[in-house]
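One example copied in:
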Amino acid sequence: MTNFVSRLLSRTEPMIAEARTGDAAAIAAIHAASFQRGWGEDEFRRLIAEPAVVTHRAAAGHNLTGFIMSRVTAGEAEILSVAIAPSWRGRGFARPLLDLHLRRLAGVGARTVFLEVGEHNTPAMRLYRRAGFYEVGRRPGYYDGGATALTLRRDLG
């Protein structure tokens, strides 16, 4: 309980901006801490540099605390990855990061956004549902260990 109260009282507003290739190492570290198979720094550097990829970063002071990355093609966007560093989860960084990212995707012409999430990832499901995403498909056994991936969709504008 003390930890929760301490975290609540020390809330910091996230600084959200477009990611740069120089953020690739920090983004790769957050990804590795968040997923069983992390993507490498070089892979993130290449993705961030791609014109069809939109990437945002969240920071608290000098600490990169999270990111979100999407690819946009022909009016549709797919969220490729999103993560908040484990030590920064539960501090309200994910929703403003997602909201700004969705506005930017709409600004570059995306009319629909898709993503996949593990059906048992309760915090992510709560975030996406509150942001207006709804289920449009399932991929049984998609994740390691046999977990089902849910395909979610949100229409923009």
Summary: The radius of gyration is 15 Å.
